[in-house]
Specification:
two-stranded antiparallel sheet, about 350 residues, 8 strands, two-stranded parallel ribbon, elongated, mainly alpha, 14 helices
């Protein structure tokens, strides 16, 4: 019964993930040319497109859907006919039973069939990984919704006002999904702890396998449904994103690459641009706002074409590797999805 229940849950969760993937892909298609900061260490790093950002999460959830599909293959095995642990003396056609009950096959060893809960652990692991991806996405939306970022506007249906501060709009649904991730982790750890020292075959401890499975499945399904609606209705402040690219010297790496193209070893370029950035910080300016005369005081290799090379759109377009944030690469990623 548990295996039949979980097989249905794997299929249902997989369907919910596919709906979320569609919503994410739609947002990516709308924002192929939307430029925003990319981050490492939560520090502005290099310009990317919002579509590229969305497609990163597409890939995460696409792997999640594949995990549940894989989990289904190991869950969909019939233990019926294995008896208490050693099999049965009655003439039981287990292959016939599997066919009649809709199972893909039978558990090949009676001892293992009775004591196996790997399929449940695998299911809980897949649930936990999927919740982790939801939580990461929620964390970004929560940050982006803040006044400090101002990148997104949450739909009123997924936010609430403060009980005492009328100016606030809190991203409550995103916070609740982020919080429920720990709950699903707890379900997984519960079953791992339950199984860690059980000898073969059946032990009464195993009746505790069902509550964490039921809870994790219900929590993930609710979270996926709500998140899909939330991401479908969120609006992006494209002007704020583009303005954020100008601050933080996000074209510094491209300026270094420019000097590499002029024949300077990257190690030396890194040092030159480091001094250049420090100068800009002290002068409260940006690299692209410096005169060519000033740039040449750091390296005589700078020419007038430096400005077109460190424009944010040019920085994105210059990425040549497959899977990069370049406009052409993102379009190809979207084409491959379709």
């Amino acid at each position: 019964d548990v295996r039949m229940y979980m097989a249905n849950e794997c299929e249902e969760i997989g369907g919910l993930i596919l709906k979320l993937i569609t919503a994410i892909t739609d947002k990516a298609k709308e924002n192929v040319n939307t430029i925003m900061p990319g981050y490492t260490h939560l520090q502005r790093a290099q310009p990317v497109t919002l579509a590229h950002y969305m497609l990163a999460y597409y890939n995460m959830f696409n792997r999640d859907e594949q995990r549940f599909e894989d989990c289904l293959g190991r869950t969909d095995m019939l233990p019926l006919g294995c008896g208490a642990l050693a099999g049965t003396t009655y003439n039981t056609d287990r292959d016939f039973l599997a066919q009649e009950l809709g199972f893909a096959g039978i558990c090949p060893n009676s001892l293992d069939a009775v004591s196996d809960r790997d399929f449940a652990l695998e299911f809980l692991s897949a649930c936990s990984i999927s919740m982790m991806h939801l939580s990461r996405f929620c964390e970004e939306l929560i940050l982006w919704n803040s006044t400090e970022f101002g990148f997104v506007e949450m739909d009123d249906a997924f936010a609430t006002g403060s009980s005492i501060m009328p100016q606030k709009k809190n991203p409550d649904m995103a916070e609740l999904i982020r919080g429920k991730t720990g709950r699903v982790y707890g379900d997984m750890i519960t079953l791992f702890t339950l199984m860690k020292s059980l000898p073969l075959a059946y032990n009464k401890d195993m009746q505790e396998d069902k509550p964490p499975v039921f809870d994790a499945s219900d929590t993930l399904k609710a979270s996926l449904s709500i998140f899909t609606e939330m991401i479908s209705t969120v609006t992006f402040n494209k002007d704020r994103m583009k303005a954020a690219v100008k601050n933080g010297f996000m074209n510094a790496t491209d300026a270094a690459d420019y000097l590499v193209s002029k024949g300077i070893p990257f190690r030396d370029c890194h040092e030159i641009i480091g001094r250049l950035v420090l100068y800009c910080i002290n002068e409260n300016t940006a690299i692209e706002d410096l005169s060519l005369e000033t740039l040449k005081t750091f390296s005589d290799k700078f020419e007038a074409d430096i400005y077109e090379n460190i424009d944010p759109a040019a920085c994105i377009k210059a990425k040549l590797s497959a899977g990069s944030t370049s406009f052409e690469s993102v379009k190809k990623q979207l084409d491959d999805i379709n």
